[in-house]
Write a structure and sequence with these properties.
It is a single chain. The chain is α+β, with helices and mostly antiparallel strands. The chain has one domain. About 50% of the residues lie in helices and about 15% in strands. The protein has 14 helices and 11 strands. A hairpin with a 2-residue loop joins strand 5 and strand 6. Helix 5 crosses helix 6, helix 9 packs antiparallel against helix 10 and helix 9 packs across helix 11. The radius of gyration is 23 Å and the shape is globular. InterPro entries: DNA/RNA_pol_sf, RT_dom. It holds the Pfam family RVT_1. It comes from Cyprinus carpio (Common carp).
Length: about 350
């Protein structure tokens, strides 16, 4: 039977799940040591946002999805239809946020609805549900303005990882697959076997550390002054409540993670992961990523499996970096797959299995 108490149970479960994941991560290094990897370049800095005009406002509003949050004063479709009447006030709110470096507190609360992961699962078990988050429309509009300006800055200064295909213009799961398949075929043409190591992270977007993320923005992509202040404001003081039909939970704070359902979350996560690309390049590891999914791949000559041992050692270094950054590598779901000559692949897979049993 549904009740506010049931909603509170969901809120506690979703919150405690993230707290427990972070507690389980062995962050043996001090926070100072977490910052030992630094970018190897010095480029432009972004210190202020540009105020927008009515033309930009109209373009963004009309292109945003018309989903409505329970916290919205007006249904989004109706809001769009009367935009001319609200335009001046909306411009004032958005530009005040951009120029003051402050994200409105009223836009920081998410409404979460539990969704059963599969229809055949027991609907009385909380772990069978995933949280689906929705945020106020005006807050997402402000995010879109910021996202557009930040992306222009990042692209013009080539800050983003070339091998990150997640949530980027002209990139997709298809571009990630094309890259990996092409490299595997080149290996096959030269008589080599390809080994793909699939790294799996547990609730990666939800365990992001805010202090480390701000440091990424400041030191890796050189955001400063009012822009950096805005992102601090955007991350702090967030919370959610669970809503099921007419029932809802108490408000629950969120002290880590990039906000689920927000426009900026995927981009912020990509920036959070930037040092990982440096580790890969330093160790000459071929890789490709799509958001929190990272694939490491290597070429093996027949009967020479030493590169596997080398990658396993590097995986330990990668896991250490992830722990220091409050990301949990799920070793049970991290897999290795061989491609190429059938007999050789059988030997490689057997070797990979033996490595799993000893690590």
């Amino acid at each position: 039977m549904l009740s506010d108490s049931k909603c509170n149970d969901f809120a506690s479960f979703f919150s405690e799940k993230i707290i427990n994941i972070r507690k389980a991560i062995s962050t043996s290094s001090s926070y100072a040591e977490v910052r030992q990897i630094w970018p190897q370049y010095q480029k432009d800095t972004m210190s202020i946002f540009e105020a927008i005009d009515s033309k930009i406002l109209e373009e963004i509003v009309q292109h945003l999805k018309s989903s409505t949050c329970y916290l919205d004063t007006l249904p989004t479709c109706f809001f769009k239809s009367v935009l001319n009447c609200l335009e001046a006030d909306l411009l004032e709110v958005v530009n005040a946020s951009l120029l003051s470096g402050t994200f409105p507190n009223s836009m920081k609360t998410a409404v979460v609805k539990p969704l059963l992961k599969k229809s055949n699962l027991d609907n009385t078990i909380l772990s069978n549900y995933r949280p689906i988050s929705n945020l106020p429309f005006i807050g997402k509009f402000i995010e879109k303005v910021v996202c557009n300006q930040l992306n222009r800055y990042l692209n013009s200064n080539v800050y983003l990882d070339d091998f990150q295909s997640g949530f980027r213009t002209h990139h997709s799961t298809e571009t990630a697959l094309i890259k990996i398949i092409n490299d595997s075929r080149l290996n096959s043409d030269s008589g080599k076997i390809s080994v793909l190591v699939l790294l799996d992270l547990s609730a990666a977007f939800d365990t992001v550390d805010h202090n480390i993320l701000i440091e990424r923005l400041e030191n890796w992509v050189r955001l400063s002054r009012m822009v950096l202040k805005w992102f601090r404001s955007f991350l702090e003081g967030r919370g959610f409540y669970v809503s099921i039909e007419e029932h809802k939970s108490k408000w629950t704070s969120m002290t880590c993670g990039v906000p689920q359902g927000s426009i900026l979350a995927p981009l912020l996560f990509n920036l959070y992961m930037l040092p990982l690309s440096q580790i890969m390049r330093k160790n000459q590891i071929a890789y490709h990523s799509y958001a929190d999914d990272t694939q490491i791949y290597l070429a093996l000559s027949p009967n020479d499996y030493s590169p596997i041992d080398s990658v396993c050692q590097r995986t330990d270094e990668i896991n250490s970096w992830m722990c220091q950054n409050f990301l949990q590598l799920n070793k049970e779901k991290t897999e290795g797959i061989g491609f190429g000559n059938k007999d050789e692949v059988f030997k490689v897979n057997a070797y990979l299995d033996s490595r799993r049993q000893t690590t």
